[in-house]
Amino acid sequence: MTTSPTAPALSGFATGRISLLFDAVPDPMIVTNVSGVILRVSKSAGRLLGHSATSLEGVPLADLIPEDMRAEYARHRMDFLAGGEDTAPELETLFMTATGPVIPIDASVGRLQMDDETYLVLVMREVSDRVATQRRLERMVALDELIMSISSHLNTPNFDDIDDRIAQSIGELAAFCSADDAYLFTRQVSGSFRLHSRRAVSDQHRGVVTVGLDKLRWIREVIDGGTVVTVLTDEWGSDESASDRRLLAESGVASAIIIPLRASGRTVGFCGIESTEATRAAWPAEDVSGLVVLQDFLENALERKRIGSELRRANRMLQAVSECNDTLIRAHDEAELLRDVCRIVVETGDYALAWVGYALDDEEKSIVPQAHWGEDRGFLTGLKLSWEDGDNGRGPAGMAVRTRRPVSVQNTAADTFVRSHSRPAQHGFLSVVTVPVFFGDEVAGLLAVYDSDVGAFKSPEVQVLQRFADDLGFGIAALRTRARQVEAEAQLRDLLRSKDELIATIAHELRTPLTGVVGFAQLLRDDEGALKPEARSEMIRLVAEQGMDLTNIVDDLLVAAKAEAGTLEVASVRVDLRAQAAQVLEAWGTGITGDVEFSGVAAYTVGDPARVRQILRNLVSNALRYGGDKMFVRVGAEGDGVYVTVEDDGAGVAPDEHETIFEPYRRAHNAPGMTASMGLGLSISRDLARLMGGDLTYCRDAGRSVFRFAMPATTSASL
User: Fold this and answer.
1) Using CA of residue 441, residue 444, residue 450, residue 454, what is the dihedral sign?
2) What is the pLDDT of residue 675?
3) Checking DSSP bridges between strand 385-386 and strand 407-409, what pairing results, if any?
């Protein structure tokens, strides 16, 4: 503060009644010259400003005004001096006191002419209460505007940018409160809180965001109870909050307000503001009450965000179901269907990984993944799953198969069994749901879906995924039914074709011996002694052989008919397989048996001799018809059984026909120069063998076709 050396004296005010009158006026008064230099200060003005009345004389009035307001005061003085004598404008400004605080002053400025001099008289009124009230009103208006602004941000039907709108609201809150940090945390399924939005003045500011709510136990307990927390860190004390205040103070926080956000009776998040100003004793009560009003908007926004998120995911899942149904309709291959379903779940449902596995009924009760989609990050490699009723089947996959219900794990890192066995959290999969896949009433497998977030699977999503799995099971069953139908239709076509061929073959097979029988019979009938005895005997032998062929054909047809009707019966007597084989070979005649190598010893079993011979006759006939130049018939015993093998060095049967040659009306190929067979011999031979407790099989061994007729051995001499 400086004193003007040329300040003129105000002699008229120094003595006499005018001086007494000047000091007697209750309102503080200051007189200056036109240059703004103080000439006289009333006692009340001195008391107001904390100075003695005489100490301010000669001091420029501008020195009592804050520097940032001096230019405005100078303009006001010049405007006033340029106006008329009746001009008495008001001056609203701030004055600095001797003790330091600044006070608001509302001054009435007047012009005084005395001794040919012009003076300015300021009648001063302190308006601290009025200014404080005005500021509170302005603050309330600003708070109302903030509330309206945040309300307009958050009360929007559009869920897509709700996170950005929340962040914008936090920014406006920080600006309104002149806070160094403002933030909003949301609670996760695991119970921990995650930072959602933050507006900090400086990256160096730490506070709750850096210290972490897990260390601020008192604050967490209070907000979990739904109570607003106000913290002044300079009030350390020794109560339960002392540790939290100390931690915040060490991080640079002077004061903070933390507001819990509630939904359905529980704290789902919290909003906080912090200040580093040590001079701030506390947040204004109006700010606190206003923030509590904002609490409702933020709570509503978080709830609407949750609902919107669930709706979006549910809509994605419904879209996935629709795409899946379209895929099921177009599907022609099971493996491709499984892969497409996994792809739809991941891409449309916005999940990290999906796989479909089948539950096997093996010794380990294994669950084997069949198809997957998504980045498995090595998770599926070497994964061993089981649905057994034991420790290995306690995982979500095994439980879904065994309990026939969906199983979800919302935090795989916290689940003891999942963490120690399949370890999905190590691969970035923090939540999983498994839903059973049904084929009819049986659980055939499961659909497993993984996500990188904790708590990703809410109840509506699980229900949609179960529907998804049900549709998948139906689609797989339909594909398999369709495949069986196609196969059955092909078999039916083959059967009808075989039956047509059978009719032609039977006619041919019957006509061949009948032609011989009829021809020889006519020759014998018309013979009038012209035939020699040798020729006559040969004709009779041929008629008998051809008649036996007819009998064998009829026997095969009858056996086939009885087997199909389920009325075929066999006798049970002691039978020597070697003797029966020798009898069959002898019946073919020396011209054929000369190409047969027959070996073996007596081998006894229990069966029907006639049916045994029928089996062996069919095998020998088959070898002669389809085999090579050499036939081998061997009789032997092995373990508890006996057997006859009929081998030939022919081309044999294709590997995929080793079993189909035993089906009725099936034939592999016909040997050149041989008439076609009916395709019944091998079928009825196997039926007869199994009916007697044995079996008939085919294999290719060392370049030979080998038919093995096996029967249980018996040592009993009689039955």
Assistant:
1) positive
2) 42
3) unpaired
pLDDT at 8 over 70: no
**Tokens 């009158």 label which residue?**
21
Distance CA 327, CA 305 (A): 32
> Which residues, 6+ apart, have CB-to-CB distance to 559 below 8 Å?
568, 614, 684, 687, 688
Token pair, residue 93, equals 């400004």
- Which pLDDT tens digit goes with each residue over 381-393? 878 888 998 878 8
Per mean pLDDT, which range of 91-105, 294-308, 334-348 is the poorest? 294-308
Q: What is the distance between the alpha carbons of residues 506 and 40, in angstroms, rounded to a whole number?
A: 147
The span from the CA of 145 to the CA of 168, in Å, is 15
Q: Amino acid identity, residue 567?
A: T
CA distance linking residue 289 with residue 228, whole number of Å = 10
Buried b (16+ CB within 10 A) or exposed e, 653-671: beeebeeebbbbbbbbeee
332 sits in which H/E element: none
- Which residues are CB-contacts of 93 (< 8 A; sequence separation ≥ 6)? 65, 69, 72, 73, 104, 105, 107
Helices (H) and strands (E) in the chain, counts: 19, 23
- The whole-number pLDDT of residue 674 equals 42
pLDDT tens for each residue of 172-229? 877 877 788 888 888 876 678 888 888 877 766 678 888 888 889 899 999 889 888 8
Between residues 505 and 362, which one has the greater pLDDT? Answer: 362
Tell me which residue has tokens 């099921």.
Answer: 328
Measured between alpha carbons, how far is 120 from 118 in angstroms, rounded to an integer?
Answer: 7
Judged on CB neighbours under 10 Å (0-12, 13-18, 19+), 274 is: buried
Kindly report the three-state secondary structure assignment for every residue of 504-527.
HHHHHHHHHHHHHHHHHHHHHHHC
User: What angle, rounded to 10 degrees, do the helices at 242-250 and 217-224 form?
Assistant: 120
Q: Which residues contact 205 (CB under 8 A, 6 or more apart)?
A: 180, 181, 252, 274, 276
**Strands 117-126 and 573-576, how do they pair?**
unpaired
What is the spatial distance between Cα 482 and Cα 478, in angstroms, rounded to a whole number?
6
Q: In whole angstroms, give the CA distance from residue 231 to residue 237.
A: 12
pLDDT score, position 63: 92
The pLDDT tens digits for 260-288 are: 888 878 888 888 888 888 655 556 666 67
Q: Are 150 and 297 a contacting pair, CB within 8 Å?
A: yes
Per residue in 566-591, pLDDT tens? 777 888 999 999 999 998 888 776 54
Q: What is the DSSP letter of 40?
A: E
Q: Is the pTM of this model over 0.90?
A: no
Q: Are 188 and 160 in contact (CB under 8 A)?
A: no
pLDDT band at 240 (very low <50, low <70, confident <90, very high): confident
Residues in CB range of 480: below 8 A, 6 or more apart:
334
Closest CA to 341 of 506, 154, 495, 474: 474
**pLDDT tens track for 582-618:** 988 887 765 454 578 899 999 999 999 988 998 998 8
Collapsed DSSP state (helix, strand, coil) of residue 244 = helix
pLDDT at residue number 447: 93
Nearest to 339 by CA among 447, 423, 411, 258: 447
User: d(Cα 598, Cα 14) in Å, to the nearest integer?
Assistant: 161
262 vs 154: CA distance, rounded Å? 16
10 Å CB burial of residue 82 (0-12, 13-18, 19+) is exposed
- Residues 346 and 375: their CA atoms lie apart, in Å, by 10
CA distance 571 to 620: 23
The token pair that represents 268 in the structure block: 């789902």
Residue with tokens 């923030």: 291
532/536 Cα distance (integer angstroms) = 6
Q: Using an 8 Å Cβ cutoff, are 572 and 607 in contact?
A: yes
